[in-house]
């Protein structure tokens, strides 16, 4: 039947076609949109949210949710600034501290959820508040920058090391000089790794099994608790990488930045459900979801749409994606392959 | 007798799979029509079209002489067509309590008032439950109940709506004999009240008890109608399978090496301890009523529960698994009962479902070898006879019985020391049951196989030896050769002393 085939086609490719259509539209309508620089700009603007979104995708796969990613990222931002500017540590130490912090937060989230049976939303919401509060205590709620006064007669003398700033600001040459920023490369590498992990390895397969029927997964001998904790740890680590990159771009411990990170990355992961008709969390979809939002905002900016319409547009995209995912695929019926 | 529902020329396809190929069928009031058919014949699909869940591709339905095109399940219910589906969780809302579940249709009815009056609702729910012989706490969460109770609630819910046509799709597959009896007397009562009933089952004992008329389906078409007082059950089975059913002929194997040993295992407070050995190459059936301790014993052997006292030995060595994981890695496999809750991964295709316990063996450096996985699944699909288009079909597109076959196949993929099958034939048709039984017996060498079944027929078809449990203790044991059935039945019901 052609009706059914059309529906299947719409579910599978609808969102990608929408994406291509949008790129074509902006290429004609917005001057300078179709250029390598603008493409890289889009990538750069989605790199950090994309990295966070890939982490949250892993928790969605085991039928969990991580609301603390935004707070982990801003904590990493503050922690890296604190360790370099106030404790005068090296870039390497700062990065290791941040990654450990992310892994530890993920571990605590996982243990709260698995061992203490706190529902995922509540556990990670609690963790979010805790971290937002905690990152303000050492500096009494102030941002961290070289030269800030610490007590009556001393100022912070440490600096963001050049090696650290390189992470956020260096651009590799690719055909054009100084084209591809480091965060974009890191984003693509993480995306590839998480995609391979989730869809090609047995660990990923077992995590999807846990998300679909936890009891059944446990009864075939899957160490369910371990995988769930691992998912939250992955999410914590990726969030802290996002925070490090943010710190490296800003070059200071800005207490007020990163407010949109949580919602943007969750949106990207949810939009990802619609890509290729997967109807489930998946890394490829998450990347496409992040790009979709990035391209849309970049195109609108270049067409001089006012900044305050951005959230509205993001919301509209999210709703369309969810309709693609849930309404259309519910009409098709159940089941499918990973 | 009045025609309740007339179905003519009904067609339904899923993609290229032509499932219903012109069904003509009349259901009459005051009559129980039993619908028989092999797994995947299209019974549940027919039911889902009648109750408004799927739309038909062709043909027509007439309800009491009027054209009937249900838009959805609610529409069908409001016209008096009430259905209890094969998968129970379609019939209950697990997160709500019993009272809310029983009264749900009333809550959903327009004009039923804005505020829920808890007290009144509970009283009403208790009345309904009691009228069905259900004695349970109406404030309990449905998710916390046993499957059998959940099934009874799904059925009770269907009763609330005052049906004209009641459809029951394999309602007894997870009920024990006593509960099934309660259901049957309820059906008798409804039949006397003038309700037309369509009853789907693979259990011959149900069919003998309840059928006024048998309709058989094969490959999406009606293949036989058997009426009158003298129902030809054998003819019906032949018509549904397309050939005569093969006889099972069991020649109990001689046993020597014990694999799994139970030493003084106590299942429950006050029950006599159990001593037993299960040998290489042997298939043992453990049977008993609901609550006899079958499931408990299976859980202990698989590391999900601990015995009150006693020890287990596997291959002569102490065996004390603390989780399913430990059991599986010691070579003890279990296919649990109630596949929807305990076994099926709804998001996966057949191949991923089958190979799930052995993903490690099907991967290199953690990367899953898709080809090897597919090949293994295809082999099992052929051997067990799973009706599907390919190994890449979503498990949810399979018929209930075929899902069950896939779940058994899962544990036959790799060799093991002890294979535990808890109610392996839930929803499997008679023909396939024999085929699977034969396969299990043929591959029995090298392991010990323990099958937990409530139906004595099933035990007799597969086992070399039958152990009967009653109240947590062994009530009898028989080699499967010239068995004294009366004595066995007495042992099952715990009356052997009186006999
Ligand atoms: N949602 C669906 N999508 C695709 N195919 C389906 C779907 N539902 C059922 N089928 C196919 O339709 C056929 C008939 O399935 P159905 O569930 O009606 O069988 P059944 O007679 O109820 O079998 P059982 O005794 O095992 O319950 C099967 O081949 C099945 O794979
Ligand atoms: Mg069925």
TrEMBL record, chain A:
<feature type="transmembrane region" description="Helical">
    <location>
        <begin position="312"/>
        <end position="329"/>
    </location>
</feature>
<feature type="transmembrane region" description="Helical">
    <location>
        <begin position="12"/>
        <end position="34"/>
    </location>
</feature>
<protein>
    <submittedName>
        <fullName>Sugar ABC transporter permease</fullName>
    </submittedName>
</protein>
<keyword id="KW-1003">Cell membrane</keyword>
<feature type="transmembrane region" description="Helical">
    <location>
        <begin position="121"/>
        <end position="138"/>
    </location>
</feature>
<feature type="transmembrane region" description="Helical">
    <location>
        <begin position="260"/>
        <end position="277"/>
    </location>
</feature>
<feature type="transmembrane region" description="Helical">
    <location>
        <begin position="229"/>
        <end position="248"/>
    </location>
</feature>
<feature type="transmembrane region" description="Helical">
    <location>
        <begin position="179"/>
        <end position="198"/>
    </location>
</feature>
<keyword id="KW-1133">Transmembrane helix</keyword>
<dbReference type="GO" id="GO:0022857">
    <property type="term" value="F:transmembrane transporter activity"/>
</dbReference>
<keyword id="KW-0472">Membrane</keyword>
<feature type="transmembrane region" description="Helical">
    <location>
        <begin position="69"/>
        <end position="87"/>
    </location>
</feature>
<feature type="transmembrane region" description="Helical">
    <location>
        <begin position="93"/>
        <end position="114"/>
    </location>
</feature>
<dbReference type="GO" id="GO:0005886">
    <property type="term" value="C:plasma membrane"/>
</dbReference>
<keyword id="KW-0812">Transmembrane</keyword>
<dbReference type="Pfam" id="PF02653">
    <property type="entry name" value="BPD_transp_2"/>
</dbReference>
<feature type="transmembrane region" description="Helical">
    <location>
        <begin position="283"/>
        <end position="300"/>
    </location>
</feature>
<dbReference type="InterPro" id="IPR001851">
    <property type="entry name" value="ABC_transp_permease"/>
</dbReference>
<feature type="transmembrane region" description="Helical">
    <location>
        <begin position="40"/>
        <end position="62"/>
    </location>
</feature>
